[in-house]
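Repro case for the chain-ordering regression, as requested:
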Amino acid sequence: MTSTTDAIRHIRLSSVTLPLHTAISDAKVFTGRQKPMTEVVFLFAEITSEQGFEGVGFSYSKRAGGPAQYAHAKEVAAHAIGEDPNDIGKLYTKLLWAGASVGRSGVATQALAAIDVALWDMKAKRAGLPLAKLLGAHRDAVRTYNTSGGFLHASVEEITARADEVLAAGVGGIKIKVGLPDSAEDIRRVTAVREHLGEDVALMVDANQQWDRTTALRMGRRLEEFNLVWIEEPVDAYDAEGHAALADALDTPIATGEMLASVAEHERLIATGACDIIQPDAPRVGGITQFLRLAAFADQAGLDLAPHFAMEIHLHLAAAYPRETWVEHFDWLDPLFNERLEISEGRMHVPDRPGLGLTFSEQSRAWTTDAVEFGTP
Ligand SMILES: [Mg+2]
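-- result from build under test --
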């Protein structure tokens, strides 16, 4: 007698390059550390079981790392063939050990994330439930704010025009980028956007790690008057103590965590009191299995949660967090999927479709640069 209920029959991995309409610049470009971003590279995983269930998942990388994620997933994916797709924790551990010599963070686990997300998608589909419901949702709709309209390559006029559009479409807040080498220009832009939006619209700023501790404290004090929902990544992503000092000194909440690449790295943020709002990214920390561990630690520490990017996955995870959350509205990924997420009255609604509620579009197939298959179709 065995409790095994199904077996993974087939896995398809593909590398997909999503072109962006405009070259994107945040503060890292203005400080000379990175080039403007023109594309995002995705690792897609599509898994089929002997009983005919299907799961889809993805991981992603910006500027570099896409080929490495794809290569690592290719090396370990075959170890999942024949395993019960319901045993997600066991499978994660098995694939982790298959690539143990490259470690338990970063690219090594981001490659596993695509497979892990696909397994959760399949499990929710098998149950006939949206993923948020399978996990145990606290709400059916999550507050959402837009980021894609507020980058530093955009003028204040472009930012406010786009903000008007997304707010009219039901989005509940606006985040704009700061961290320019000229801090006075940052203040001018925030002042203009706050004046345009009025006091009642939720507004956040994101310095993308480009302030040193002194500048962050000075800017944080100058920004207090704007009643921001949070200041994001004011200092280096790995400077937990620097974040913690700011969180102590300022009334405005501090948000951070998107750049961290494992649960262990997030544990350090949590342990040092580095933020009021934690911003994990499921593909970056190794998938949903790892995100759920991290979310349990964050909730225990009393933190709020605002996951980074990938709203298509994070909507479900934010809905299942005990405290009121935010998801980040980016329209960039829309062309990859056939479905659109419903937004109204400041919230993004968990779809009633089972699993993530996503299918990959024909356009995403056209942007596929390489693919590999394991098992029997
Ligand atoms: Mg950010």
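Ordering looks correct now. The first strand starts at residue 8 and ends at 24.
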